[in-house]
Amino acid sequence: MPVVFKTIGAPAVLTGAILLAATSASLAQGVLRIGMTASDIPLTTGQTDNGGEGMRFMGYTVYDGLINWDLTSAELASDLVPGLAESWTVDPADKTKWTFKLRPGVKFHDGSDFTADAVVWNLDKLLKSDAPQYDPRQSAQGKTRIPSVASYKAIDPMTVEIVTKAPDATLPYQIAWIMMSSPAQWEKLGKSWDEFAKHPSGTGPWKLTLFAPRERAEMVPNPAYWDKKRIPKLDKLVLVPLPEANARVAALRSGQVDWIEAPAPDAVASLKGAGFTIVTNAYPHNWTWHLSRVEGSPWNDIRVRKAVNLAIDRDGLKELLGGLAIPAKGFMPPNHQWFGHPTFDVKYDPEAAKKLLAEAGYSKAKPLKLKVAISASGSGQMQPLPMNEFVQQNLADVGVEVDYQVVEWNTLINIWRAGAKADISRGVSAINYSYFIQDPFTGFIRHLQCNLAPPNGTNWGYYCDPEMDKLFDQVRNTFDKDAQTKVLQKVHEKYVDDALFVMITHDVNPRAMSPKVKGFVQAQNWFQDFSTITIATAGR
Amino acid sequence: MLLYILKRLVTVTPVAFGVSVVCFLLVHLAPGDPLSAVLPADATQQTIDEMRSAYGFDKPLPVQYAIWLWHVLHGDLGVSIATGRPVAQEVGRAVVNSLILASVATLIGFTFGTFFGFVAGYKRNSLLDRAASALSVFGVSVPHYWLGMVLVIVFSATLGWLPPTGAGPDGSGNWRPDIEHLRYIILPTVTMAVIPMGIIARTVRALVADILGQDFVEALRAKGMSEFGVFKHVVRNAAPTALAIMGLQLGYLLGGSILIETVFAWPGTGFLLNAAIFQRDLPLLQGSILVLAMFFVALNLIVDVMQTALDPRIERA
């Protein structure tokens, strides 16, 4: 009898154990629901809109670039890694000629092969206005990202050649912006980008399964993803646009979403108290005053630039922001690989500031007066009003009178594009602007290269220093990665030592999440990887 | 009656035309470039110019208006700059969602409003009247987005009974009046209903009080009519004004709930308008304002006609 019991019992127990294991494994994966700050689902066709947030949620999830960002580390500033291209080299004889060797065996979500023709097709989609697949909406987003590209062609099914207008070692950073959509899917859907938007197909780790404009997008893992380490562990990723900060917090607190982007700073303490996790990290963002260097600007005197930098109590500002900030020590966040060793110590020293101002000829009788344009809100601008009021008080303490011109965010963008000399700038000598500084071009070159003064670019202040231009040329002509990093450090040292900006603070990209969310690594990047995340069964 | 409707229709036409001009010009008065929110911040002037001419923003305003109006008259509200989707489709979907919200809120507001109004009007200066009046004053004066947040804090964040945002567990795509979807509608509609409730209650109270004081009521009572019979006469006399107010409130609720729809992330016209404003999405903004304004015009017309049907004195005047 006992023997019979055993023979029946053993498989039953085993089956039970397997079932149990299977259930707990699937539960451990779960569904992650994210409340975004965007008011709509970012463009799903490949080249997304909604800036960094769009690329984060709809770019590097559904799609890949030839080159991707390494998003695996929270400790190190992230760098480029091979994506759909396994390697890329520049022709030693002609430094404008780049060869990209593509990754073999990669398939789009619709099952078609990723080839060199697909790369050319995607570049045409953005750059060739008479191509049938040319999409003005994606082009508007993507064209600006690859200003150096002159021409391109497929050499063989797995090799693409891209030629730049002039030698430019920053090309890989530009290429990392360009997402690859499936030509076969577009053909299949009647060559319509509107249809493609509903049924997109890329090569990325996530496949879009539901697209409800302004309400919801759902993605499931792509089990055939080429990078086995990045096959998502979750069952599903849900994106919900929640542009209103309080609505985001309410949705998180009631358990409607598990993760929200950018909780309002005044909600952080109560969220922590309620057991939610606040995740922050440094990332390439800065919050500065961009200075006008046109004739007659007070900022043309380095003593003034240094004095103002020394007059700001950045730790006090951090306190004002509930700790959600990194005080600036330079233009790049501290510990960034391009930080280098500047000699000018960006710190709070009001006495030194006063001394420098006196040397520059300012006094109580003849105080330094500054007119600065700021915005009341805006993407990346953090809390511009209270923060600028704080800075204004700091500067008043050393005898500098600041007069703010508060304008609406879109107007500030227009001022920034138009340049310090334009009428729209209303004679201000600085603008408070926050920057995306993730690559050499957006980080350094665009702000200060002589020939990028408006209308050719966004060197708002008309800064021009042949020495700096020489460094920028070196950056563009240094094709060895480590050597290029050294040049970029020199650039940054000059940024800081010449006090070319009023360097105030860096955002920490706060996000709040339920303790159920496990395995998230917040990379020091505007983009993030959702593949490693799981949802625990216990907890809220 | 038919003639009256025709006459009203004729007077509506210039109003509609005026509305379309205002809709078109208003959004052009707002600061900011319609393309700046769509293009990456460091887009080159060339890209900006290309987009500008692609959307026709480089043409003079009167020409832009003529082109727009021509398309609108053919039922084409244009294409959203931000999403590339047809505006008519976006607005259509949003209007349905707002209509759901507004009609439920109006139903709640009208039911409770008339109830409180009649009670207060009949029992003037009683404790019941005071309570009903206090409630309606509260309804009219409380900022509804604040009330919305308080309700969310209590019923969603603290008690966890009701969902705070969205139109349903999987969006509004398959909206149907089942328990799961109705749970999502409770908080926004209650928040929305307090204002019409307050306004209707106050109006009805004043009306009922006024009517009860009139000679004909005394005459009816003297004639020996039952109190219920008198009540029916009171209702009949109060109805035209109450209806007019309800019509206007429905109009307000359809378009004026930007704050509530934003607080609750309800995908209706208010949410759409909010997004369109922040993105400077001119075609979407113009299209949705136009549709909402036309709703007002149409509702006014319907209410006028209904009032005439209920009270023949209006037609004669």
TrEMBL record, chain A:
Domain Solute-binding protein family residues, every copy: 80-419
Pfam families: SBP_bac_5 (PF00496)
Subcellular location field: Periplasm
Chief location of this protein within or outside the cell: periplasm
Record-stated family: Belongs to the bacterial solute-binding protein 5 family.
PANTHER family membership: ABC TRANSPORTER SUBSTRATE-BINDING PROTEIN, PERIPLASMIC BINDING COMPONENT OF ABC TRANSPORTER
Protein's recorded name: ABC-type transport system substrate-binding protein
Species the sequence originates in: Methylobacterium persicinum
UniProtKB/TrEMBL annotation, chain B:
Highest taxon of source: Bacteria
Domain ABC transmembrane type-1 stretches: 95-307
Membrane-crossing segments per the record: 9-30, 99-122, 134-162, 182-201, 242-264, 284-303
Keyword Transport: yes
Membrane disposition: Multi-pass membrane protein
Gene3D superfamilies (UniProt xref): MetI-like (1.10.3720.10)
Location within or outside the cell: Cell membrane
Keyword Transport: yes
Keywords: Cell membrane, Membrane, Transmembrane, Transmembrane helix, Transport
A Pfam family annotated for this UniProt entry: BPD_transp_1_N
InterPro entries with a match to the protein in the record: BPD_transp_1_N, MetI-like, MetI-like_sf
Cross-referenced PROSITE patterns: ABC_TM1 (PS50928)
Residues spanning the signal sequence: none
Family, similarity comment: Belongs to the binding-protein-dependent transport system permease family.
Protein known as: Peptide/nickel transport system permease protein
Originating species: Methylobacterium persicinum
